[in-house]
Amino acid sequence: MLFDTHAHLDDDRFDKDRERIIENFKEDGIEMIVNPGADIASSVKAVSLAKKYENIYAAVGVHPHEVDTMDENTIEVLRELAQNEKVVAIGEIGLDYYYDNSPRDIQKKWFREQIRLAKEVDLPIIIHDRDAHEDTYNILKEENDDRLRGIMHCYQSSLEMSQQFIDLGFYISLAGPVTFKKAKTPKEVAAGISLDRLLIETDSPYLTPTPNRGKRNEPAYVRYVAGMIAELKGISYNEVVKQTNENAKKIFAIK
Ligand code: NI
After folding, report:
1. From the CA of 92, how far away is ligand 1's center (Å)?
2. What's the pTM value of the predicted model, to 2 decimals?
3. Which uninterrupted H or E stretch holds 34?
4. CA of 36 to the centre of ligand 1 (A)
5. What gap in Å lies between CA 105 and CA 135, rounded to an integer?
6. Residue 66: predicted pLDDT
7. Residue 80, pLDDT score
């Protein structure tokens, strides 16, 4: 059974058929998903979905696009949300130098504060890194200790750099782009890194994999990500599904 480690089912684009999608999980071969937050409102929504449905887990955190709105009180709210037993990570957090929606200094400050919160509550982190590989790595390295662990979500950097993140205790999660014809780097990463450090995700409703590009993404399409990884590694689809499922349960401490 598939484990989609990153799906924003709280998103408005699922308002009309969220229930149906979740009810179809079994039929679609989905065992469980993690719904990360992007701000306080979506973190609260993620937690309430997780409370309602057995096969949904939540992460809580503020995305780099939204960190402009953060203050000490926001950290306190996240700390409280993280107490819920279905919350399995702090995320998604990180740096985005492509859009630069928040000033970089502010992004770095709140990335660091949320990493410290994760260590305090002993949860892994889910990282969004867009065009900010060096600063992301340097902050993780500075904050590294035996409690720091997590996931490089929708990993877009090089195979070479992936080893540095793995050495810090991170898993590499691949999404729809690995299925895109022109996406050379994610394909190199899929082929090159050890299966025991790989995770799969959709990032629904975004980044719809081939052959459904143009449609809204949903957790069922994570099978195309698994299928492409199997093809690139020259191993069976079932092996990819089984190992990525085990990896996900390990990092999120789900029994
Ligand atoms: Ni996301």
Report:
1. 7
2. 0.97
3. strand 30-35
4. 7
5. 11
6. 93
7. 98
